[in-house]
Amino acid sequence: MNGTRATAARRRKLVMKGLESAILLLALFLILFPIVWMALTAFKRPVDLFELTLLFTPTLDNFRTIFAAPWNIGAALWNSTVVAGLTVLISIPCSTLAAYAFSRFEMRFKGALFFTILATQFIPAVVVVLPFYLLFRDLGLLDTHLALVIVNLAIVTPFAVWMLKGFLDAVPTESEEAALVDGATRLRVILDIVVPMVWPGVLVTAVFCFILTWNEFLFALILTRDNAVTLPVGITRFRTERGDLWELIAAAGILISIPMFLLSSVIQRHFVRGMTGGAVK
Amino acid sequence: MQDRRLKYVLILPAALLVLGTTIWPLAVSLVTSFRDWRLTRSLTPGPFIGPEHYVTALTDDPDFANALQVTASFVAIDVALTVVCALGLALLLRRAGVLHSLTRAVLILPFAVSPALVGISFRFMFNAEMGVFTWLAGAVVPWLQGYVWLADPVAALLVLVFSDAWRWVPYMTLVVLGGLSALPKEPEEAARIDCASEWQVFRDVTLPALMPVLAVVAILKTVFALKMFDQVVTLTGGGPGQSTVTLAYLVYSIAFRWYDMGYASAVAWILTAMLVFLAVWYMKLILRKPGGA
């Protein structure tokens, strides 16, 4: 009696274990397959494109093609780098100072101010872009890096303030206070003591904001035409009247994604915090 | 004390950035939403017409009604799918194992892919003639062989959900995993010693303790699903017909195809109102938590 029940329990456990492995294998497949398929497609010749086989003669032609005229994806790569880089360079110092004030001081309207800054990340980008489109059109700033940097600051700054406040809250204040007692000014303390201590957090935030800006699509779609087109809009150019050039889309897709894969693995542990603002540790 | 003024000086640059890049355009959009302004007729703002655009949108515009319904369906399916899958996957991944750590390691990848690129890749994989997912679906379920996914209104919406879930489920799994690791171990172990089944432990101990994290996941996902835009452009283009035109995409169409800035602003503000409502709810939820934020 006991023996059969034990075997039944063991068998059930074995079935559960098999089921668990099957689900995980399915999850792994679903997560990785689109990426792998894009990577494979990037090395295919157009004739192999519609073959579902894994065996084909790989070629680097697609990468050569997207960098050559008329596609010049190098220009979009440059635009993306400049826009994301400048956005981060402007946003991070401003956000660090604000996050420090929110973390260390009590002040009137602090709750309301902090709330306003955070709430802005819920605003749909499409409502922000309408007035900017009209303004930039009047100023002749459409299709420039400057226009994209300005609107991207709208997305990035709230995230940065929120993330940095989390990192600053975790930094102990003793050495700051000691320096203040010794007569150092608050600005000196921030530059010489606080920033070096919170530096890893600043880097993580910067990387997070860089990824957000790099992948941004809506602003770039509406505000650029030729000169300032970024990579996410650049890939849509491979959908031509003669059909979709999938092998080129895939090659450009690899170009967009590889740097982001590298960056996101570097900050993996903190990535979750970025979006949920420390609500979930 | 010098700090008294300094703290406001420190906040000033970031506050100006937010003011200039978000609050200002929001205000301008709000004002524009009460004006008659078509770029095809005039390059300068037209006269104020009161809440006419809002009345039109809410009572007399089949396109708006359609977009509202599409967005609602999309949000409902997307959020439910994301929460359930992320919770299930996180519960499995909590345990040790080779497959487990392998899966945990790749969870971050989809979120690093540009949503626009996700849309275009899924369009490729669901291509009628040679899409690999079209082929796979046909191989598993024979009557789906050669099915033209993106030509069917319901299937196209489901593919859109799939593409979005592909990007978000792994990310939200990481969020839930974070929540799980913060839970104390004792209550679960005590329940197991009391001979509760795994299902009872989950239902009566783990799930209630995890509720705050799941609420964060659900609200955040609702917010991002409501704003859904990138993949609509690159995956379905709003089609077939208007079956995948979300509210954000409708605003884009009104503004940059029909150049009706007044009406586009009004629709954008209806969407914004919904999101602000959710934002307030979300902030209350996370700022209430001691030590949160």
TrEMBL record, chain A:
Keyword Transport: yes
Listed transmembrane segments: 21-40, 77-100, 112-134, 146-168, 189-214, 248-267
UniProt domain ABC transmembrane type-1: residue ranges: 77-267
Main localization, broad class: membrane
Pfam families documented for this protein: BPD_transp_1
Membrane topology listed for this record: Multi-pass membrane protein
Entry keyword annotation includes Protein transport: no
Domain of life the protein comes from: Bacteria
Record localization: Cell membrane
Entries under InterPro entries matching the protein: BP-dep_ABC_trans_perm (IPR050901), MetI-like (IPR000515)
Keyword field: Cell membrane, Membrane, Transmembrane, Transmembrane helix, Transport
The family this protein is said to belong to: Belongs to the binding-protein-dependent transport system permease family.
Protein name, as recorded: Carbohydrate ABC transporter permease
Species whose genome carries this gene: Falsiroseomonas oleicola
TrEMBL record, chain B:
ABC transmembrane type-1 domain boundaries: 68-280
Main location: membrane
Record membrane topology: Multi-pass membrane protein
Compartments reported by the entry: Cell membrane
Cited InterPro entries: MetI-like (IPR000515), UgpAE/MalFG_permease (IPR050809)
Membrane spanning residue stretches: 70-93, 105-126, 132-161, 205-226, 233-255, 261-283
Any Pfam family matching the protein: BPD_transp_1
Keywords per UniProt: Cell membrane, Membrane, Transmembrane, Transmembrane helix, Transport
PANTHER family linked: BLL4140 PROTEIN, DIACETYLCHITOBIOSE UPTAKE SYSTEM PERMEASE PROTEIN DASB
Family note: Belongs to the binding-protein-dependent transport system permease family.
Name by which UniProt lists this protein: Sugar ABC transporter permease
Organism listed in the record: Falsiroseomonas oleicola
